[in-house]
Amino acid sequence: MSKQIQNITGNVLCDATATFLNGSGLATGEDQNTVIPKTFKETVNGRKEDVPYVSAQAWRRWLRNTANEENGWQPSELHAIETNAKRATSKIATELDPVTYPEDDLFGYMKSGSKGEESIQRTSPFKTSILKGIPKMRALTTDNAFVFPKNGTPLPYSTRFYSTHLEGFFNLECYRLGTFVNTPSRVELSKDLIEKYKNSLVKEEPQKNVQIYTLQNAEQLRKERTSGLLKGLVHLRGGAKMAAFGADVSPKVIVFAGMTSANPCFNNLYIGNGERPRLNVDLLKELADDYKEKLQTPICIGIRKGYLENEEEVKALASDNFIIDTPIKIVEVFIDKYMR
Predict the structure, then answer these.
(1) The whole model's pTM is what?
(2) Burial class of 61 by CB neighbour count within 10 A (0 to 12, 13 to 18, 19+)
(3) What are phi and psi of 16, to 5 degrees?
(4) Distance between CA 248 and CA 253 in Å, rounded?
(5) Of these four, 35, 80, 255, 290, which has the most CB atoms within 10 Å of its CB?
């Protein structure tokens, strides 16, 4: 990698045909035997429309698990750190160790100190939107079923599921990986960890009451953890009700690039007028031109064959400004060229 990539910003599109990936509990009123997915209202042609979505919390958890599995990373498990008078869990935290656990470095953490304890907070270098159904390609349906007990009458239940294509965008602040900033108002690295890893950390004090701790191998670590996150992203797996509404949630389209800025500019990229999604090629060209001074790499586009309606138009973009391949191979190409 000739120059350090500051950010990687991008977009994913996942096939959510006839599935239920993130639940919102039971319906209200007289329909309390129906399990419903997460939706929100959006105005389309003057009327309110239900838009299915997957929360950022849910798909970030899928990504954490997938990245750990794909890279052989040790998970930073959530565990109870405090209970109330009734012995119920009142506070939880991960290992809070971004040196040993890559997911703590990538996704951040927080621990609110009590009784004189140190408060710790690292905002996530990896930022995301929700995954939401693209316009004109979202339909919700109810599946009615019965449970037949050995005795008694059948018990009805229903599940509301959807068919759509889920779009989400993200930005990874690569420059923050392996670097931890402590100020009077926010502590990213605890005193215990500073002592534990003191032989591996370089300390700077750019101004009064500000300490920056950087791992000695930070440059290589950034490459490894960035590469690992991209591998997790392109192999993404997870989701609710997989036994009955199974889905392959790995992105069928991924668009991303290295940038000097943290603008998540690759969003609302898809047109849903036909039977299959279209990638908005004109918008991509406009973004390539508008952000040419901030792009550190070509725009990488990975597409699964037969998925996009305008596949050939997308492939025709291939040039110095655009690299086109399959989703998995485009990540491999990017890692080989920019993360070595």
Answers:
(1) 0.94
(2) middle
(3) -120, 60
(4) 13
(5) 255
